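Sequence design from tokenized structure. All designs in this work follow the same two-part layout: the structure record, then the generated sequence. An example of the structure record is given first.
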């Protein structure tokens, strides 16, 4: 269901814990303070790209400080008794809102050549608007799956 969380995204470096819901519609998902899973992208842990959007300003602004993430930072996704750990590998400081290549199964920018990945894998993509207080461009953070553990381990 689009207006219910089904997992939690955690970014220790930012002290962030935000519920994840299906979809990226503003009114039904993002404006409720959720991080929204892009339909048609992979689920956590699966081969492909688990792509998530969130507001940078307003509505809980879960991705307010996404620009502070650096290579090596961890992004955790808790879902159905499992924790998926991703490690940030690349940051694209600015691209167009229509750059759908950033959420492709092998994420790479269609606008900024050389930005993204080339090989099949298990990725996470976090997107938000930039610069702050505008929706002119998108900031993109990519990571790769490091591991999966069951709850209680």
């Amino acid at each position: 269901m689009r207006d219910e969380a089904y997992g939690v995204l955690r970014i220790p470096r930012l002290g962030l814990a935000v519920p994840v819901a299906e979809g990226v519609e503003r009114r039904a998902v993002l404006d409720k303070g959720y991080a929204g899973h892009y339909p048609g992208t992979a689920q956590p842990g699966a081969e492909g790209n688990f792509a998530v959007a969130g507001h940078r300003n307003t509505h809980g602004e879960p991705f307010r400080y996404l620009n502070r993430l650096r290579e090596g930072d961890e992004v955790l996704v808790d879902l159905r008794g499992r924790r998926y750990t991703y490690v940030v590998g690349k940051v694209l400081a600015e691209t167009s809102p229509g750059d759908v290549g950033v959420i492709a199964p092998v994420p790479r920018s269609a606008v900024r050549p050389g930005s993204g990945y080339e090989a099949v894998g298990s990725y996470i993509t976090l997107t938000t608007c930039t610069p702050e207080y505008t929706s002119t461009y998108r900031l993109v953070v990519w990571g790769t799956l490091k591991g999966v553990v069951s709850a209680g381990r």
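The mean pLDDT is 93. We note this feature because it recurs in several other targets discussed in the main text.
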